[in-house]
Automatic annotation (TrEMBL):
InterPro entries given in the database record: MFS_trans_sf (IPR036259), POT_fam (IPR000109), PTR2_symporter_CS (IPR018456)
Localization: Membrane
Name of the gene: LOC107271232
Family: Belongs to the major facilitator superfamily. Proton-dependent oligopeptide transporter (POT/PTR) (TC 2.A.17) family.
Pfam families: PTR2
Alphabetically ordered keywords of this record: Membrane, Peptide transport, Protein transport, Transmembrane, Transmembrane helix, Transport
UniProt key word Transmembrane: yes
Descriptive protein name: Peptide transporter family 2 isoform X1
Annotated membrane topology: Multi-pass membrane protein
MF-aspect GO terms: transmembrane transporter activity
Organism of origin: Cephus cinctus (Wheat stem sawfly)
Signal peptide: none
């Protein structure tokens, strides 16, 4: 989120001190240093304080990319001349956004391949290469950017526009407040610039059309007009964060959805995080489609003719995407594990004996536990609840020569807890083993989870190992302790596919007990083993949580809708931010656009932490309703907008090295006018230089 707040700093430096070229250059250097530090942190021979170096690298990357963000789009826009090249400018923003998504698309595919395909420094993966490759690209890009300097049209600020911006607002605000107090005899404060001045004409109080006009005697009318337009644009930005709060959930909530789905495609497993590639891939296809076909076709119908209208439609598509994700989530919830609710606990019984067992419990009548099966019960529970259980081995169990076929035992449980209780024996006594609190939730990565539980009935077997071998050669081993009756492993996340498990011990190194299991995405498994008199008398795989059944490609419709929303909203918003802002404050305006992205991220964090709904589907529907309502308000704000024409390039000049003249060898032109939007309710000062005019145009 830091990289979306830093653009304000980069914008102030660009518009008031350094200019856009130098700001891009300096922050690119910071960005490159951050990438290099990340590479060093992942390189064991070089790494010094790897954790600290990683944090420093991430902060530098956030500052570097944040400082660049508002300047790159504005710098690219500077190379065009309006209004003659308005069409080319629109194409530029589409191409600009195309390259961003192309870079993201290639990075998502290439970086994991580089990391996994190569080994270095004795590790199975090479994170140094994964970080080093982007660092090398950034240094190369910086070098190419410098080489192109003679070809750029460079503009540098001639004054501290941000200081004047703030000063004008401050003076106007103070004077406006004083003018609203009748007992002060209509005196208004001149701030630090001069003594008080009585604003009247022939004894009649002077009434300003706009509160900023109270500073018109101390600041140029052009500056006041620019500030009015910027404030009007910022006012229009108020609804924008909600769109980004939806858009940015692709990398969190939608990836989480993907982890609950079946990713098998033609025998290949598609992992949840790989679904994020769909968005940039679709955007790459949609950008030329919209520019060459959809926008021209709707333009002939006098529809979608302005960036603001496109943004409204884009917001509606975002709402439709979240309606789709909510409907999909309702279907996915049918495959989720049944976890205990508030005031409940889950008891998971497994009978490993070769006969049935009956038990009496206060939460139910007499219950029969069938041999080799599991049964699940949800019981009432508070912070700590005790249950007395009474087990009886039915007559068939007498063949096991149990000395004591009955058992009375107390079980402690608590709210939301899942306890696994295993019926077995120790010697000739019936016994009930209680494991550590269990976890039936699916893994965040979507990979299958497996846990091994080994019950030892004698001291005969030693050095027992349980080996899991996949068809691709991957191995995981669990070493069973020799001194415990109940041995349990932690959950292991494994790759989906066919696995063989082999049980070996000191006297059987080749493994007599073997079997296979197909581990599926999203499932949670328990490998239950019981030893008796030196033999493995029970070994079975239990599926504690079912595998993902709904195919992952059902995510494509909502990704298509959100990608359409992105093309219509984000590209149009960047175009609007540049073309409608005053020339002296274009970077600041684009920075405000990126701040709206940060606020959207913050909204997601707040809603997530609030946990308003137990069902994720209802949260998706809430976001969909909010964005649709938000777009209604946004449409009303857009309706109040009118088109205002003002002078182009009036507040920026070239650096002194070229005698205060613009350097633009790529595009030669004379001074012409560009357009900006302003609220129709905002008054533009009529005192403009010769050649300035205003004109209302259709929205």
């Amino acid at each position: 989120m830091l990289c979306y707040f830093v653009p304000v700093v980069g914008a102030i430096l660009a518009d008031s001190y350094l200019g856009r070229f130098r700001t891009i250059l300096y922050f690119s250097i910071i960005y490159a240093i951050g990438n290099i530090l990340m590479c060093f942190a992942a390189t064991p021979p070089i790494s010094i304080w790897p954790i600290q170096m990683t944090y420093i690298g991430l902060v530098l990357i956030a500052w570097g990319t944040g400082g660049i963000k508002p300047c790159v789009a504005a710098f690219g826009g500077d190379q065009f001349h309006l209004p003659q090249q308005q069409q080319k400018l629109q194409q530029f923003f589409s191409l600009f956004y195309f390259t961003i998504n192309f870079g993201g698309f290639v990075g998502m595919i290439l970086i994991p391949i580089l990391r996994e395909a190569f080994t270095c420094f004795g590790d199975d993966t090479c994170y140094a290469l994964g970080f080093g490759f982007p660092a090398a690209l950034m240094v190369t890009a910086l070098f190419l950017f410098l080489l192109g300097k003679p070809l750029y049209r460079l503009k540098y600020p001639k004054e501290n526009i941000m200081l004047k911006f703030i000063s004008c607002i401050y003076v106007s605000h103070i004077r406006y407040n004083y003018s609203m107090q009748p007992h002060l005899k209509l005196y208004v404060l001149q701030s630090q610039y001069a003594v008080k001045k009585k604003m009247s004409v022939n004894g009649t109080p002077k009434v300003a059309n706009h509160w900023l006009d109270y500073a018109e005697d101390k600041f140029p009318s052009k500056l006041i007009m620019d500030i009015k337009i910027v404030l009007a644009i910022l006012f229009l930005y108020i609804p924008l964060p909600l769109f980004w709060s939806l858009f940015d959930q692709q990398g969190s909530r939608w990836t989480f959805q993907a982890s609950r789905m079946n990713g098998t495609i033609l025998g290949t497993q598609l992992l949840p995080d790989q679904m994020q590639v769909i968005n940039p891939a679709i955007v790459l296809l949609l950008i030329p489609l919209f520019d060459k076909l959809i926008y021209p076709w709707f333009g002939n119908l006098q529809m979608l003719s302005s960036p603001l209208k496109r943004m409204i439609v884009g917001g509606v598509f975002a709402g439709l995407a979240f309606i789709m994700s909510g409907l999909l989530e309702l279907k996915l919830e049918e495959t989720y594990p049944v976890l205990p609710d508030k005031g409940q606990s889950t008891l998971n019984f497994i009978n490993t004996l070769q006969c049935d067992v009956e038990f009496l419990a206060p939460f139910d009548s007499t219950i029969t536990l069938n041999s080799g099966l599991r049964q699940v019960f949800n019981v009432s529970a508070k912070n700590l609840t005790k249950y007395e259980l009474y087990l009886v081995a039915i007559p068939q169990c007498w063949e096991l020569h149990l000395k004591n076929p009955t058992l009375s035992i107390s079980i402690n449980t608590s709210e939301y807890q899942v306890n696994t209780l295993i019926v077995g024996s120790i010697g000739k006594d019936l016994h009930l083993f209680k494991t550590d609190p269990d976890e039936f939730k699916k893994s965040l990565s979507g990979r299958p989870k497996l846990r091994v539980i080994f019950i030892r009935d004698s001291e005969i077997l030693k050095n027992v190992t349980v080996t899991l071998e996949s068809s691709s050669g991957l191995q995981d081993k669990y070493f069973v302790p020799d001194d415990n009756s109940l041995c349990e492993s932690t959950y292991m996340e494994l790759e989906p596919g066919l696995f063989h498990y082999v049980i070996r011990n000191r006297d059987d190194p080749d493994g007599t007990y073997k079997s296979s299991i197909l581990l599926e995405l999203g499932a949670v498994y328990l490998l239950m083993l019981r030893e008796h008199n030196g033999l493995i008398v029970f070994h079975k795989i239990f599926t504690m949580t079912p595998a993902n059944k709904i195919h992952i490609l059902w995510l494509v419709p909502q990704y298509l809708l959100i990608s359409i929303a992105e093309v219509m909203f984000a590209i149009s918003g960047l175009e609007f931010s540049f073309t409608q802002a005053p020339n002296s404050m274009k970077t600041v305006t684009i920075a405000a656009w990126y701040v709206s992205v940060a606020l959207g991220n913050l909204m997601v964090i707040i809603v997530t932490q609030a946990r308003l709904f137990r069902s994720q589907a209802y949260e998706f529907f809430l976001f969909a309703a909010l964005i649709l309502i938000n777009m209604v308000f946004f449409a009303v704000m857009v309706k109040r907008y009118s088109f205002v024409v003002l002078e182009a390039d009036s507040s920026a000049v070239a650096e002194s090295a070229i005698e205060n003249q613009e350097n633009y060898p790529l595009i030669k032109h004379s001074s012409l006018n560009g357009g900006v939007y302003a609220l129709s309710g905002v008054s533009i000062s009529p005192r403009m230089k010769s050649g300035h005019f205003s004109k209302r145009m259709p929205r």
